[in-house]
Design goal:
8 strands, 214 residues, three-stranded antiparallel beta sheet, alpha+beta, Tetrahydropterin Synthase, Chain A, elongated
């Protein structure tokens, strides 16, 4: 029989139920007698892990979804070792996610998404290799915090912003008081400088100056 293998697939040839050979892309001729072929797609594909509710180290629940890009690296192992290799990787990602999040606080989870993804990738790669898959990329898609925690975070941010504004106003008032105090001290120590400033105001116009003579 004639077998044409596309670039994105590999063909496994079995004779009497036993593995015989693996065909790469191209045209091949085989004897049909007592043989069967299995086509395995080796193009990268996406394994989506929907929202999973996991607990952080500080006991808060967070929901996280992931996207994992995998490809078949060993067609024979992928076909023979387990039934449903993608499901096998799916479970491995779920377990690794729980371990990674359980070792971090909620703030650390929100601030270190790339670090969590890298930890998951290193944990999942060996499990994927066991079933003939290679993990090319793993990313956190969504990190969903409960509504009550979002409201608390918003209130905290508002309180911090108000506190900073109050502090800035106080600093401005203190700076203004210091400037006035320095001006008063300078006028007391240097009367001639005060008279000179008065003359400058008269020359500039737009000011009413009352001079008191003894």
């Amino acid at each position: 029989m004639k077998v044409i293998v596309q670039e994105w697939e590999r063909v496994l040839v079995y004779r009497d139920g036993r593995f015989e050979t693996e065909l790469a892309s191209g045209r091949h001729r085989l004897r049909r007698w007592r043989r069967r072929v299995v086509r395995v797609a080796v193009r990268p594909r996406l394994v989506v892990v929907p929202l999973q509710e996991v607990l952080t180290s500080d006991g808060l629940a967070v929901r996280i979804s992931l996207a994992v890009r995998v490809r078949v690296a060993d067609a024979r192992r992928w076909h023979e070792v387990v039934d449903g290799p993608d499901a096998f990787v799916h479970v491995a990602v779920q377990v690794a996610l729980r371990d990674a999040v359980a070792s971090r606080t909620l703030d650390e989870v929100l601030a270190d998404r790339s670090g969590i993804a890298a930890q998951l990738l290193s944990a999942v790669e060996p499990a994927a290799a066991e079933v003939g898959l290679a993990v090319e990329q793993l990313a956190l898609r969504d990190v969903v915090v409960p509504a009550e925690l979002r409201r608390a975070a918003a209130e905290l941010a508002t309180t911090r912003a108000q506190g900073l504004a109050t502090l800035e106003r106080a600093r401005s008032e203190v700076a203004a008081m210091r400037a006035l105090a320095n001006a008063a001290r300078l006028a007391e120590q240097q009367p001639a400088l005060m008279r000179l400033r008065t003359l400058q105001a008269v020359e500039a116009g737009g000011a009413t100056v009352v001079l008191k003579t003894s």
